[in-house]
Design goal:
The chain is of the alpha/beta class. It has one domain: Alpha/Beta hydrolase fold, catalytic domain (Rossmann fold), CATH 3.40.50.1820. It contains four helices and three strands, in the order E-H-E-H-H-E-H. Strands 2-1-3 form a three-stranded parallel sheet, with helices on both faces.
């Protein structure tokens, strides 16, 4: 598959991780002259929250009983975050191709996004 030199790789992490997992990949893409953007899905990375019971000193009983900080995050929330990221990127360089690269939960998010918005995505 040949790619347009204006292509941007949008990297979507999996569950239990965040955008920093893509650091080595982004480094390699940059060395090859490609642009990339790694997003943090809602509740991950800089947007993550940590229960008070998990912070020092830890209260493991309270932590075990506390609902997940991701309990209210839905697949639609993740897709909306990806839509916003792609919209921002396409606003910076209109009509530039986008290649979605995803892992785990990011793959589910990317699949739903691509089904809803086939035009900005590239398949090969």
């Amino acid at each position: 598959m040949s790619l347009d030199t204006r292509t941007t790789f949008v990297l979507i992490h999996g569950s239990g991780t965040n955008s920093t997992m893509w650091g080595p990949i982004q480094q390699e893409l940059a060395l090859q002259g490609w642009r990339s953007y790694a997003i943090d899905l809602p509740g991950h990375g800089a947007q993550a929250s940590y229960p008070v019971s998990y912070q020092a000193p830890q209260d493991l009983e309270a932590f075990a009983a506390e609902p997940s900080t991701l309990a209210g995050v839905t697949l639609d929330d993740n897709v909306a975050a990806l839509e916003a990221a792609v919209r921002r990127l396409r606003g910076l360089q209109e009509h530039s191709p986008v290649v979605l690269v995803a892992s785990s939960l990011g793959g589910v998010t990317a699949t739903v996004f691509a089904n809803r918005h086939p035009s900005p995505c590239r398949t090969g």
